[in-house]
Every structure is written in C-alpha cells, then in structure tokens.
Design brief:
The structure holds two protein chains of two kinds.
Chain A: E1 2-3, E2 9-10, H1 14-23, E3 27-30, E4 33-35, H2 44-66, E5 77-78, E6 81-82, H3 86-95, E7 101-105, E8 108-116, E9 123-129, E10 132-137, E11 143-144, E12 152-154, E13 157-159, H4 163-179, E14 183-187, H5 191-205, E15 208-211, H6 213-218, E16 219-220, E17 224-233, E18 236-245, E19 248-250, E20 263-264, H7 268-273
Helix pairs in contact in A: 1-2, 2-3, 4-5
Chain B: H1 6-13, H2 15-26, E1 30-40, E2 43-53, E3 60-68, E4 74-78, H3 88-99, H4 101-125
Antiparallel strand pairs in B: 1-2, 2-3, 3-4
Helix pairs in contact in B: 1-2, 1-3, 2-3
Keywords (chain B): Metal-binding, Zinc, Zinc-finger
InterPro entries (chain B): Znf_SWIM
Domain SWIM-type (chain B): 61-98
Amino acid sequence: MKIGEDKLYVVKNIKEFIESILTRNEMYFGKGFTFNPHIHKFKEEDEDIIKLLIEIYEYKKVVDDMENYSTYFTKILKGKKAYLTESNLGRFLRDLKDRTIDVTINGKSIDNVSFVKDDFSLDFNVETKNNKILLKQTSDIAMPISPGGKYFLYQGKIYEPSEELIKNYKPFFNQFLKKRSHEISFNENFSEDVASFVLPALKKISRNVQVDKGLKNKFYEEPLKSSIYFDKQEDNIIANVLFKYGDIEINPLANENKKEEKILIRDIEGEKRL
Amino acid sequence: MFDINRKLIEEFSGDTVYKRGLKCYENKQVKSIDVDVIDRLNGKIAEINSVVKSSESNKEYRVFIRFRDKATFIQSDCDCPYWGYMCKHAVATLIKFIDEKEVILKDVEEKRNREFINNIKNNLLDKSNILPKIYLNTSYKLQIDSEHESGTSI
C-alpha cells in the first residue's frame, strides 16, 4: 500500500498506520509527507478498503488480547503486509471497483490486473494418438490464488467464477497439477468414460472444445429414451429402469453393460433427472 | 522413467541384505505394492508403499521407499526390527518394482485416471441442485464479558 498527496510513499507499517487513523495521531512518512488524520481524508473509492484494514486490525487486537505472551501476537499485520483470508481477498477485490492493481505471484510481477466476477472460458483439444486419447488444455491454465479456490488468475485478470464452473474445473486443474502438464492421456478402455463424462464436463467449462474427426467418427450419439418396467413379486412391486440410446440399451443398475463397437455418448444429466 | 537398478540397491543395502531381499522377492513375500509418482519441476519422485511377509513368521511388515527419477539416493523405512540402513523387505520391494515397473506404472496411471473420471462423474451426478430446498430458522445470542461489572475503559 502506498499513500501521499502527490508523490506516493510506501506504508512500511500497516498496523501503526491504522493506529494513527484510529487514534488521530500523525505519522511521519518522509521529508515531503506526514499523514495527519485531522486534515487528510481518504477518497470515497478507498474508504471500503481502509474499513477492511481496520477490521483486520480489530481482529488482530481481539486475538492478541486473548494471548498472555507477547511472542504469540498474531502476524496478520506484519510490517507493510496485511495477510488476507479468502473472504478478505474477495472484499478487497470487489472494493477495488474498476481500478487495476499490480500483482506479484510466486515472484513474478503482473501489472494492471483487473478483477472480473465472471466465468473464464478455457480451450481444449481432444485427439487420438498412438491408441490413446489425449486431452490437452490449449489455453493457459487458470490458476487458483486462494486456498478455497474461489479466485483465479487467468490471462492477466483475476476472476471470481460461478460455483458451478469451479466445481467442474477443479478435477481438471488437480489432474494437470499432479502431472505438471497441460495434458491427460487415457487408454482406449476409457473411451466411453471420456465420451460420457469428460466431454460433457469440458463443455461446462469451455466454449471451445475441439474433438478430432477420427474420434468423433467413433462416437454414437442418440437422444435418451427411458423405460420403467414394473414387476409384481409376491407383495412387492419392483421397478426396472432402462436407458435407451437408439439401438443401445443401458441398465443403470448393472455393473457392466454390453460393450459396443461405437463409443456411446451417454446423457448423464438426463439419466440423473430420471 | 526411474532408472533405478539392482546394482544400486546392492550398493545401498550391502551384499548380505541384498541376497536375503532377493530371496524374499523370489519367495513372493511382497504381498502388495502401491506406487505414487509425484511430478516435480526438477523431475519425478517415486513413493512406494508395500507389505512384505516376514521370512520367519506370519507377520507382515510395512515398507516405505522414496527416490528420484535419476536415483542417486534411496530413502527407505520399514517397521521390521532390522537396525541397518536398508532391510531385506525394502530390497525385495525394490526388486519387484524394477522387474514389474512397466505394469506397476501403468496401474498408477490407470488409478489416477479412474479417480479423475470418478470426480467428474460425481460432479455430473450431483443431485444437490435439483433437490427441493428447505429454509432454516436462526437465532443468535451475544455474550459480553467486561473487565469490570460497570464496563471496559474506552
């Protein structure tokens, strides 16, 4: 954080700065600037961020007062840094309104980062190579920047995507992270899983999923028609559910269904509704 | 991937322990082996957990081994009573890994992909957004503990 009238000065001790605001005492920043709470006022656009810092200071005071030993003082305000929880980060980003900020992530600086409360769109490519199905994220990886995975840095912007997008992106991100790669390869025995689960999940997080022609030709896509058969067995009525895709029938309760030559794209969400 | 070899294991364990470990392996005392491959920026790390049957009794020992892709150091730990650096159970586990590396690593890949598909499947089958919602009632209580009965100085 920097403050000043014309030239801006680094706030080297945020805790003391908040105390000077609250106690209305002056704070010396340098030859050209001394903060005087009696004459200096924050602009309307900064008020919410100052309020946030005051709240963090108050929280630190409550926790510090609970501890009897000074060495255990919480370090959420330490020197020029204020450590933010994920909720604090959300508030800070929203309080920035339309302003941009400079971000340092793992030592790398990115200037003029803006905040958007919107879903990001990622690009993917699915192809067959050496009898394997290869899934590649062709766009950059959207990188979570808070422990709960609510905020992401992607293409020079910080995003707060919908919970639905986060839920669906999470398994892909975690898999890429485990592999330290933008690719996931599947053996051919995963073909139906890729068609029925991976592709529909990809379509929820991306408007650009390229599937190579060779793979597309193997897919079998027909609308889901379901049937329920009722059987009376002694005093019980048993319902048997059958999902039909064209000529292919699937018993959702059977462990294994007959394997087809074509790769069936199941309408999992339609099956779920039933 | 993982160019660990029998010679390196022999160097780490010593001749006697190596021979005993080889015997354990040949007697099929390695009951289970689970490998996790961790990708790091500076290379891959293998973490092996295995269960090896004792040569003298029906006891089973748990072995943990960790080494890098270009293995120059092998970290090994076993809950058997042996006091030296690498026991015969760790040696037997490593020989099994070397001999069956391709199948074991393929299984690791399959296991990872299966977990990945299951996570996606659970998301797609998540019923929480189609279930009817019930609104809860709430009540709160504020407890104030002052330093003195008449309050705290301000």
